[in-house]
């Protein structure tokens, strides 16, 4: 993964190879400015060198969003990351809070007058679970703009073209009759059926589009009549009616019939937030290019790239270079964790307090919960080196959550701050 570089005035320079950054740090010409994403700041003033213009490309998703920084002139993927949202967690927390409040109110025996319903929602209101996704992407776009010379943004505006899916025979649109024909419907089905064969459940194999009601029996090309099947199951079914083909598997028959009519929840979340995200990105003052999911898949397939969130982001829009390099690079995995709870105390399943009110002082010995620390324990039962998120206590005995386990009872004296809490946790994968 390339390293971002800032000059002495904190202006972005051209990102450098990790070996070059390591050399600058070793010679004392630079210092670590930020751990995630790794950024260095130069100690010496450099001559005005024009930094290469870069483009942020975004593949927004309901659960994961791919982000890539690309040099359009050379085709180099400078930086790649996958952002994992916490929308479902927010939804669950709000539902739990609502249930507890209702139960408390129902336990009150005194008469309570009905409250006048004068609460209105502002124009363009979105649920908190969806709004958080937009805020996460906005945060990281602004951060990357501070660390490198971003001159343009590309985003996937529509995951699926619903009109073309509902009516595949529509004419007058170039990609319905050209090279992009079929990409929209296929991508939709892959998401809807979880990239598995509907009949045998196999994954990681070539899948074919299959008509639930055969066309020879009057079946249409509507997406509600389409599913995915492996070659063997597709040939075995042939033009048999689904009820006859799965007569000995009533549970599977019922599940397929139900799933064929269910809309995509994740696709709905993306479609709901797409224009709000587009307007948010336009506020940066940079030109914003848009593209569809079918175009993204077409670009990825024609360039021979495998399926990942960040590679999908790199292939968004018509500006995608014909050749891209540094495909097998380290990717920063960023998970949105939030900034903690605003509840004064935790409650049990009945809604009664089970803990004392939390302290208003967040920091203990200079650390706060969520900080990423490095603890080098030299004595005691827990000798070793631990890197991870810290949970502080007033006593000064902390817990450190590493990648694979949680280590309890680490003294603050062994801890060194690597990255201050910013609401996200980080991991790197290759």
3D architecture notes:
The protein has twelve helices and 17 strands. With 430 residues, the protein is of the alpha+beta class. It has a seven-stranded mixed beta sheet with strand order 10-7-4-5-6-11-17. The longest helix is centred in the N-terminal third of the chain and has 21 residues, at 87-107. The chain is globular. It starts with a strand and ends with a strand.
The unreliable regions are: 169-180
CATH architectural label of the domain at 162-263: Orthogonal Bundle
CATH fold assignment of the domain at 162-263: DNA Binding (I), subunit A
- Number of E-state strands: 17
Helical segment tally? Answer: 12
Shape: globular
Mean pLDDT: 86
Q: Give the C-level CATH assignment of the domain at 162-263.
A: Mainly Alpha
Query: How big is the Rg?
Result: 26 Å
Domain HNH nuclease: 184-235
InterPro entries: HNH (IPR002711), HNH_nuc (IPR003615), NA-targeting_endonuclease (IPR052892), RNA-guided_IscB-like (IPR047693), RRXRR_dom (IPR025938)
Protein name: RRXRR domain-containing protein
């Amino acid at each position: 993964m390339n390293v971002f570089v800032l000059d002495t005035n904190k202006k972005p320079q051209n990102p450098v190879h990790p070996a070059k950054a390591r050399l600058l740090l070793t010679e004392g010409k630079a210092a670590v400015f930020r751990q995630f994403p790794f950024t260095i700041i130069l100690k010496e003033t450099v001559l005005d060198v024009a930094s290469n213009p870069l483009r942020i490309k975004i593949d927004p998703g309901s659960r994961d969003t791919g982000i890539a920084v690309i040099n359009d002139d050379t085709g180099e993927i400078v930086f790649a990351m996958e952002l994992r949202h916490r929308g479902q967690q927010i939804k669950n927390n709000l539902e739990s809070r609502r249930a507890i409040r209702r139960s408390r109110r129902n336990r009150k025996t005194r008469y309570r007058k009905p409250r006048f319903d004068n609460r209105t929602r502002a124009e363009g209101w979105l649920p908190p679970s969806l709004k958080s996704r937009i805020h996460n992407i906005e945060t990281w776009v602004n951060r990357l703009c501070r660390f490198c010379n971003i001159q343009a943004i590309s985003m996937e505006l529509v995951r699926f073209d619903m009109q073309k899916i509902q009516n595949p025979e529509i004419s007058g649109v170039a990609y319905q009759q050209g090279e992009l024909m079929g990409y929209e419907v296929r991508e939709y089905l892959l998401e809807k059926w979880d990239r598995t064969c509907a009949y045998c459940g196999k994954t990681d194999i070539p899948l074919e589009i299959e008509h639930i009601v055969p066309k020879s029996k009057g079946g249409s090309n509507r997406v509600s009549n389409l599913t995915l099947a492996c070659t063997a199951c597709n040939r075995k079914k042939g033009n048999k009616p689904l009820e006859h083909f799965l007569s000995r598997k009533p549970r599977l028959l019922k599940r397929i019939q139900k799933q064929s009519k269910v809309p995509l929840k994740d696709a709905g979340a993306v479609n709901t937030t797409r224009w709000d995200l587009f307007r948010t990105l336009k506020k940066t003052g940079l030109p914003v290019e848009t593209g569809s999911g079918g175009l993204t898949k077409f670009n990825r397939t024609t360039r021979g790239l495998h399926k990942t969130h960040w590679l999908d982001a790199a292939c968004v829009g018509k500006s995608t270079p014909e050749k891209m390099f540094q495909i097998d690079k380290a990717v920063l995995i960023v998970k949105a964790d939030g900034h903690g709870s605003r509840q004064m105390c935790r409650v049990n399943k009945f809604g009664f307090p089970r803990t004392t009110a939390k302290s208003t002082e967040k920091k203990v010995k200079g650390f706060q919960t969520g900080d990423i620390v490095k603890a080098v324990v030299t004595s005691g039962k827990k000798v070793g080196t631990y890197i991870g998120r810290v949970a502080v206590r007033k006593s000064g005995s902390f817990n450190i959550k590493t990648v694979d386990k949680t280590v309890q009872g680490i003294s603050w004296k062994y801890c060194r701050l690597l990255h201050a809490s910013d609401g996200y946790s980080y991991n790197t994968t290759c």
